[in-house]
Design goal:
By secondary structure, this protein is of the alpha+beta class. The protein has 3 helices and 5 strands. Helix 1 packs antiparallel against helix 2. It starts with a strand and ends with a helix.
Amino acid sequence: MKGYILSPAARGDLDAIWNYTAEKWGIDQAVRYIFDMRDACQALASGGLKKGRSADNIRAGYRKFSVGSHFIFYRISADRHVEVIRILHQRMDVQSHFDNEN
């Protein structure tokens, strides 16, 4: 793999995760959790982790990988990048977040 790319929605998800975690559990925990998310994205891109599970029920070709209490939704692009589409809490109505796109 060549690396990973965060979609604008995934960047917004990380911002929201940061804000919530920092407010609820403090800045140190927010830093650790965001680093865990970014480390997982990098590991997916480098092939260091299994490729997650199929999320074809969301969109064809999508996969998901669990990190903490969140799922990283991604796909592999034609040029072999990991495209991180969304990062959503496991308790969220995931389908509704994807139904509102496009």
